Amino acid sequence: MNNRHVVMSVHYLARALLLGCFAFFIVHLVRTEHLNLYIAGRMQLIVKLSALAMYAIAAQQLYASFRNWSDGGVHDSSCDCGHEMPATWGRSLLLYGWFALPLLIGFTVPDGLLGSDLATAKGVQFAPQQLVKPLESTVAADLLFPSDAFTEVYAEYGKQLVKRPIVQVTDKRFIETLTTLDLYRTAFIGKTITLSGFVYREGSMESRQFAVGRFAISCCSADASPYGIMAKFDKANTLETDDWVAVTGTLGLASYNGIEIIQIDVSNAVKIEPPKEPYVSPDLDFGME
Amino acid sequence: MSNLFIRLANWTATAGCAILVVLVFFGRDMSRWNFDAAKMQTFKILFLSIILEALPFLLIGVLVSALLQSFVSDKLIRKLTPKHPVAGVLFGSLLGIILPLCECGMIPIVRRLIRKGLPAYIGMIYIVAGPIINPIVFGATFAAFRTHKELAYSRFYLAFCVSVALGFILYFFMKKDPLKPERQEKPPHEHEHHHPHAHDHVHHGHSRSSGIVKRLADTPAHAAEEFFDMGKYLILGSLITALLQTLVSRSSFAAVADHELSSHLFMMGFAYALSLCSTSDAFVASSFNNMFPPAALLTFLVFGPMLDLKNTLMMLAVFRKKFVLKFSLLIALLVLTGSILFDHMGII
């Protein structure tokens, strides 16, 4: 075939462009700080590195394209490893179009936050991992915080938290703090709690009730699980579903769908801007220090 | 390889049917399934996040595979692999401890290794055991199941048992090469020359330094080829997974959680459709803690990394169709039996 080198040159060019665009897309997400919406903090470094690797491969493909064009494919040695370019134009278009699809979606559809829509699909757990029932009406800290080998860290954390005047549910330890509050609820009833998240509602809630939720991701948003705590607020109707709020209130109990769960009696709720890092992650250092 | 277009159409149809079956099965009313702006954004985030998360691992996979192709001789591979089947099975099962990779990166490497003379059964058990029996997944599983240590331990015991059993079954019953024959549609002359050519480099080795320079220069070219080879399946897997996650509601699962067998089967199907990375699936499983019995969660934790939509598609790119089918059924059967056994013996 006479113009085989031209065809190969176009193939390499298409590949270089696609690889370059993937790399550019990652850089674009890093620049706009939207990478946080896709990838958990601890995985972001390797995603950024993969952009570098793709730029390098794209550069090589561009060079191969150029060489095929100018030398007529005399030096085309890269194709001796059992790979082959698509045989027809139609197939090539299909292949490269397929790779362009995620890029197209990536650049055209605006970025939004994961919110109630996905939380409804995934189902919010209001009573996570309820395994150790605290003994009642005791004063000694160890009796208030009974534990086995694996809840020991929660018991220890609970003993620290209960000494504080206000229990702040921080982003760093969002899941761990909620689990501790839930496991050792008797110790925390009546304490002042603050946390922030998006407003989540489901059918079986009362009109004054809503949940303050966050998505927890450990690698990427495909593994996002919604976590939430029930809240009760007299002016709940002023808050729209999916609004971001910072709430302060005291911890109490409520019965929900036949299960006794913890609930915050909200005294103050302030609308806030969604944080730059909307997701929380399991704290892998928890209990290790 | 038959026409790519027909195959793509085939997959799309299959995916469409699968989604419909799920819809019918759960009897959800269709009015809630309209794809509004919020769903589109959710879909976008899920779809791209799976691709972005898998990209680095895929790139590591294709780069290691390209380096193997350029620098490791077939002779060395044959010398390093154990000859005895028991040693071979153990080697394949535990290889993940020293080579912790996720499945997206593994498949191109295993293909390369098998082509270079690694016994196929060892390669296959590595694909199955590697994503679970490795230090990173140990850490993640224990973090997610702090309050359920038996479940975390069981995950590794069961994964080990299943992969050892698989290894022996493959060793005794797998007669044919599981790899697809190398690219028939390729002009035959190039293919024929490939291996002798590689040997020339190793044995005669013209001037050694120029050989290395050339081989280094070839590495990104090989990597690009493999990237486009495997990437299309990754994109398809991510697309279907993201659609399912966006559209199928989890509360519709509750009905199946009560029966032993159906809860296991459901968790298997769920793990298959989700196609999560094995480092993060433990956290997802722990969010099911109250809904499903621990044995069903064990099934999810062991089956998911061994077999899922994303890696089936990638396997189909590399292995023969019939082999992938039999292999998948065997994994499903072994995991299910193992998980139920573990449950009844009171290990979980």
TrEMBL record, chain A:
Occurrences of domain DUF1980 (ranges): 15-125, 147-280
Membrane-spanning intervals of the chain: 12-31, 37-58, 93-110
InterPro entries according to UniProt: DUF1980, DUF1980_C, DUF1980_N, UPF0703_membrane_permease
Keywords of the record: Membrane, Transmembrane, Transmembrane helix
Domain of life of the source: Bacteria
One Pfam family hit: DUF1980_C
Protein name as catalogued: TIGR03943 family protein
Organism of provenance: Cohnella endophytica
